[in-house]
Amino acid sequence: MYLQPQVDSSGNLYGAEALVRWQHPERGLLSPAIFIDVLEKTGFIYKLDRYMWDKAAKKLGEWKKEGKDQYHISVNISTKDFYLVDVYETFVGLVDKYDIDPVNLNIEITETTLMSDFDKNMGIIRLLQNYGFNIEIDDFGSGYSSLASLNQMPFDTIKLDKSLVDYVGNENGEKLLKFIVQLVQSLGMKITAE
Q1: Full-model pTM
Q2: Which one of 30, 73, 88, 108 is separated from 20 by 20 to 30 angstroms, measured CA to CA?
Q3: What is the Cα–Cα distance from 133 to 135, expressed in whole angstroms?
Q4: Using DSSP, how many helices (H) and how many strands (E) does the chain show?
Q5: Closest CA to 101 of 60, 154, 137, 55
Q6: Which of 127, 135, 184, 129 lies closest to 156 in space, CA to CA?
Q7: 167 near 177, Cβ under 8 Å?
Q8: Measured between alpha carbons, how far is 74 from 67 in angstroms, rounded to an integer?
């Protein structure tokens, strides 16, 4: 697990995103682009996801014991997870196992993943939210994202795709980015930029 810090506009740390990296003995730290395809093709991606969820929850438990329970860790859920894992029971089990507050274990999901079986997946997302987990839509603004989804899906945080952040420095792009930020905030959601 590689923790990518999340900071506010003043540079203060408020959480992290759990990213997977492979510490290879000879080649060093490898990005998931090197190995994720193999796991997805063989159907084992869900095992890596469960491993990462466990590592993140364990780290949150350690932070809680150290008095650092103001921080959260965000983890990703893939489309296959909804078919191969009881997502709700797994996350509730992690909260119990490590004695953590579910609000500190944020769940990131892409709109594409939700659309794979919208009604079923939204039912699971609502159960997770009702239990106390924060739900983040990942990669907002890339491909399938739509403004209608902000009304249809009860997200806690919108995570802007890097392609939108790249608009900084472009006059029209900055206007669009400012509009999206204001819209998301007016809906009572938090916003994070990659």
Answers
A1: 0.86
A2: 88
A3: 6
A4: 9, 9
A5: 60
A6: 135
A7: yes
A8: 19
Token pair 């510490």: residue: 23
Mention every residue, 6+ apart, whose C-beta is less than 8 A from residue 22.
29, 30, 32, 34, 35
Tokens of 95: 């909260």
Beta strands in 53-189 (DSSP E): 72-76, 105-110, 135-140, 157-160
Q: Does an H or E element contain 192, and which? A: strand 190-193
pLDDT tens sequence for the chain (194 residues) = 999 999 988 999 999 999 999 999 999 999 999 999 998 888 888 999 999 999 999 999 999 999 999 999 999 998 889 888 999 999 999 999 999 999 999 999 987 777 778 888 889 999 999 999 999 988 776 665 566 667 777 788 888 777 777 777 778 878 888 888 888 888 888 888 87
**CA torsion, ordered 60, 65, 68, 73, to nearest 10 deg:** 0
DSSP, residue by residue, 60-78: HHHHHHTT-TT-EEEEE--
Phi, psi of 119 (to 5 degrees): -60, -45
Name every residue whose Cβ is closer than 8 Å to that of residue 123 and which is 6 or more positions away in sequence.
Answer: none
| 85 DSSP assignment | S
